[in-house]
Amino acid sequence: MNRLQVLWQSTVGKKAVMAVTGLVLVAYLISHVLANLLVFDGPERVNRYAALLHGTGGALWSARLVLLVAVILHVVAAVQLTLRSRAARPSSYVAGREPQASTLASRTIRWGGALILVFLVYHILHFTTGGAHPEFIELNPYHNVATGFRNPLVAGFYAIAMIAVGLHLYHGVWSSGRSLGVSRPSPRPLHRRLALALAAFVWLGFTAIVVAGYLGVFGRAG
Amino acid sequence: MNLILHIWRQASPSVPGAMVRYEARDISPDMSFLEMLDVLNERLMERGDAPIAFDHDCREGICGSCSLMIDGLAHGPHRGTATCQLHMRSFRDGAEIRIEPWRARAFPVVKDLVVDRGALDRIIAAGGFISAPTGGAQDANTILVPKPDVDTAMDAAQCIGCGACVAACPNGSASLFTASKLTHLGLLPQGQPERYARALTMVRRMDLESFGHCTLHGECQEACPKEISIDTITRMNRDFLRAGLTAGRAAVAESD
To answer: Is A2 on the interface with B (CB under 8 A)?
Structure first.
């Protein structure tokens, strides 16, 4: 067996893959939320940013490929580990098991992840390809955001998905350091300030755009 | 005090089990939980019924024999306590208490509340030891160990192998158990030569025993009667990944 096989075939190695791919996606999410917040600055800058990205051509597609591979590895490892976890306790406790330390975020990480995956497909059809957006204009994100979130169902779905993203990051960012064995020992190992700050920032940033779009803060100009 | 107990009864591994209701009257609050079960068993035997099988040995919290999921909590409601050190004064008079065995695919039920925890022994056999030439004992302190390393190693060495971490884990993972031994041996000078091979072989055995993986819920460290920290799991992951990335083929071939 070669080294990568050794890692991929172990639970610890699969978790490391999930941690690395998760951190790649978190790094992307941070740049994504920062860029999206340009929408509050009016149509010109955010549209110019979109044009800039598309102007890079090969670099844009390379980045997309990296993200796609990261998503696939993250999901495949998650599914395999989840099946393993189910198999590890075939008969559950009749009287239930009282959670002592787990958080809402850690308990919802699997279903939340599934929701995020569904959301991701919709989101790409909605804002990237435009197939699911009734008034889509290519390379005009300001217009697409301004019109896209006026529909309460769309805005509602985005808002729920962003809660799932926030919870996912709150547990995932913190646990990835431990899965990779790089976190420092702590007298209170369950405390996580960095993950809380990152999760809150990403959640608030995206949610602000959804809420503002729904309320019609962005004019139809542009 | 009077109690109503719902206890898992299962005659053998091959037959299905069920919760059975018992009334335990005139229980002293000073009894330990296991003494309360002893009393119940004596009364069952007087009636001609089969006593409830449960594991126990030292009854002073150091052997790791006792188990029991009590009201959904491994070793019951007290932190840092094995079931044998839990006393009936922790329950109110008239309480209904539900008692189950540890549940995991790797821990098959033998009878009633007794499960086979041999999987943990096999993880230890896969690498939870040091190899040293025998001979006269060395003088004390000839090998100096930094105080923080001693403290962390000894905290991890407190593991009594009871399996509460597996029982409390939503994934049925033995990560805290395996990580405790890897931390204990991996921090001390005597454990260094085999440190990375040990991480590979013990993690591999843990996976082969069909335990689940770690998602860092943190339930294990709350359930652990020795309050071992999930920081040990971070160490296990670090040593395993380093071993897997650097040693690779050689170390794995050696472990086969």
So the answer is: yes
Token pair, residue B157, equals: 């060495």
Tens of pLDDT, residues B43-95:
999 999 999 999 999 999 999 999 999 999 999 999 999 999 999 999 999 99
State both tokens at A148: 């896209």
Q: What are phi and psi of B23, to 5 degrees?
A: -105, 125
Q: Which two tokens stand for residue A135?
A: 């008034």
Q: Which of B105, B200, B239 sits opposite A88 (nearest CB)?
A: B105
ipTM of the complex, rounded to two decimals: 0.93
Domain B118-255: homologous superfamily in CATH: Alpha-helical ferredoxin (1.10.1060.10)
3-state DSSP call for residue B87?
strand
The reported pTM is 0.94
pLDDT in tens, B188-234: 999 999 999 999 999 999 999 999 999 999 999 999 999 999 999 99
Q: Which residues from chain B sit within 8 angstroms of residue A109, using beta carbons? A: 215
Shortest Cα distance, chain B CAs vs residue A197, angstroms: 19
| Class of residue A49 by CB neighbours under 10 A (exposed 0-12, middle 13-18, buried 19+) | middle
Report whether B141 contacts B108 (CB < 8 A). no
Closest CA to A166 of A177, A154, A158, A155: A158
Maximum separation of any 2 CA atoms in chain A, in Å? 60
Asked if the B3-110 domain carries CATH number 3.10.20.30, the reply is: yes
Structure tokens at A172: 């995932």
